[in-house]
Amino acid sequence: MTNSNYKLTKKDFNQINRRSLLTFQAGWNYERMQGTGYLYLILPQLRKIYGDDTPELKEMMKVHTQFFNTSNFFNTIITGIDLAVEEEQGIDGKETVNGLKVGLMGSFAAIGDSIFAALIPAIFGALAANMATNGSAVGVLIWIVAQVLVMIFRWKQLEIAHRQGVSLITDMQDQLAALTDAATLLGVFMVGALVATMINVNIAAAPSIGGVPLDLQNSLDMIMPKLIPAAIVGGVYWLLGKKNMTSTKAIFIVLIVSVALSALGIIGN
């Protein structure tokens, strides 16, 4: 089978990045998830590599509509490596491309979600929210700058992955594993910091024993400061593990219980 001589240009990379940022999830479905979105991402480039209405193009279109699901923040790394292989090997690289996509989508989903869907929103969201509660507008700017930097990262990674090709994975294997562990640890640390700083619930009820008022909040603080916020987070985490429970339902439950306990004078802030 004849390989293509077409080489991707800057215009191709820009087109793929625009589609990735704006429409990658548009074709999401429960059967193949991001499969159709992935094909839409690179279809113009596949037509240039294999030609219009050729058997090779039809075969690769079938390959690229198979099940695919990874992090939205790392998907173009896989795309860049995939296109580097197809440029070099054409239809002969079909099995390699299929193996790359299947092998990388899971690991990149874990890394991308740990860093970009959990760690960065937790850090910069906490900074922005804390500044906002103190009346500062700088927090909004911090959040916007963080999101712009994420967009720039997503835009640049495609060309880097295409230039490095398959060697990117072998060269960065150890670094990616270490990065995932560090991101997970820092994410847990940030969640703990958020619980301690952003959830302010105190026991307002002051029962008396033998005519002596009992300061429940002070007693709990002596056991462990911020024990109530930690218990609330633990309770919501347990609740989310229940069947048919969603985050929206959990939010409403917390709101209703909080209003009821506050109205009864049991909790305050």
Explain how this protein is built.
The chain has 269 residues and is an all-alpha fold. Helix content is 72%, strand content 3%. The chain has helices at residues 10-23, 35-50, 55-64, 75-89, 94-133, 138-164, 167-198, 216-223, 227-240, 247-263, and strands at 202-203, 208-209, 212-213, 267-268. A two-stranded antiparallel ribbon has the order 1-4. Strands 2-3 form a two-stranded antiparallel sheet. Helix 1 (10-23) crosses helix 6 (138-164) and helix 2 runs antiparallel to helix 3. It is elongated and about 90 Å long. The model has no long low-confidence stretch (mean pLDDT 84).
Task: Summarize, please.
This protein is mostly helical and 269 residues long. It contains ten helices and four strands.
* Residues in β-strands, percent: under 5%
Strand order of the largest sheet: 1-4
Q: Which residues sit in consecutive blocks of at least 5 with pLDDT less than 50? A: none
Oligomer: single chain
What structural class do helix, strand and pairing data support?
mainly alpha
Radius of gyration: 25 Å
Helicity range of the residues?
Answer: over 70%
Name the overall outline.
Answer: elongated
How would you state the average pLDDT, rounded? 84
Summarize the biggest pleated sheet.
2 strands, antiparallel
Number of strands: 4
N to C succession of SSEs: HHHHHHHEEEHHHE
